Amino acid sequence: MGFRNIIGRRLGLGLVRRRKPFSTATCDGDGNGNAKSINLYSAINQALHIALETDNRAFVFGEDVSFGGVFRCTTGLADRFGKARVFNTPLCEQGIVGFGIGLAAMGNRAIAEIQFADYIYPAFDQIVNEAAKFRYRSGNQFNCGGLTIRAPYGAVGHGGHYHSQSPEAFFCHVPGIKVVIPRSPRQAKGLLLSCIRDPNPVVFFEPKWLYRLAVEEVPEHDYMLPLSEAEVIRQGSDITLVGWGAQLSVMEQACNEAEKDGISCELIDLKTLLPWDKETVEASVRKTGRVLISHEAPVTGGFGAEISASIVERCFLRLEAPVARVCGLDTPFPLVFEPFYMPTKNKILDAIKATVNY
């Protein structure tokens, strides 16, 4: 049966219920196994190897994945697991996700790659109108919870307006899916394995800027990190900073500079944007009385606006200053003017000082 015919029959496939439950693994980000210093794309590659090795229902597919993909995240997978489980698809994002929905509805682990997050828009209808609603419309009689959609997102230094976008806010508006963004290699591996094994469809955005730049000790064993749990990665008392993905390293630099001026910053990595951990953020803001949110996406309609609204609703009487946002500009992502567009360390530092001195 041809690829397009399989996609055309996905609604019929959705009626087939799973014959066996999803496997699980211990949520153990520390573990006692060996750790190795690797970069982010290698951590993603490790997670995909483990996912395919531990579950014969797992499949990896997308444009160019069989030879390793543009960013080499799928290197060696086809050689080890065969082209029946790791295979290229036509250049058709709608078809990739549609096929993934049908595959997951049959009880499989469908790991679909969109080569750049900028090109996820042709698949938007499949994600928000099919994958996100699959369980709800059947009253939980059938679902496509085994679907994980991987996509490199964000600035890369030279991508311009078609290879640098951060579209996470579009998907955070959609009940029925999860949206996850890691900040580092260790987080990427553990969170991706959790996404693949989660009983809900997940959109997993990978910060392409960090594919080779970010390097840290990553456990070599199989481990998972919990979804929808924010992490306080830096304790502070004067202001709370909230971010995700590649922006965390920029924010941490700003925190270090602010500390030289006697400002104590608490830094939180949200990690899961949908559903996000309101309690951890709220507890921090109640302690500091001030909050700053930063992301690469344009400021208008960015997910920072949702966080800001929630904090104002839940912590209004504890706020000592307006909620600050340092984000991308309301323009198409520029090429030569990227340094002016990006929320930089200095922009964040200025906003920290202005908020603390309000």
From TrEMBL:
GO terms for cellular component: branched-chain alpha-ketoacid dehydrogenase complex; mitochondrial matrix. GO terms for biological process: branched-chain amino acid catabolic process; response to nutrient. It catalyses: N(6)-[(R)-lipoyl]-L-lysyl-[protein] + 3-methyl-2-oxobutanoate + H(+) = N(6)-[(R)-S(8)-2-methylpropanoyldihydrolipoyl]-L-lysyl-[protein] + CO2. One of its GO terms (molecular function) is branched-chain 2-oxo acid dehydrogenase activity. InterPro entries: THDP-binding, Transketo_C/PFOR_II, Transketolase-like_Pyr-bd, Transketolase_C. Its EC number is 1.2.4.4. Coiled coil: none annotated. It is an enzyme of class 1 (oxidoreductase). Residues 38-213 form the Transketolase-like pyrimidine-binding domain. Heterotetramer of alpha and beta chains. This is 3-methyl-2-oxobutanoate dehydrogenase (2-methylpropanoyl-transferring). It comes from Gossypium hirsutum (Upland cotton). The lineage of its organism: Eukaryota, Viridiplantae, Streptophyta, Embryophyta, Tracheophyta. The gene is LOC107907527.
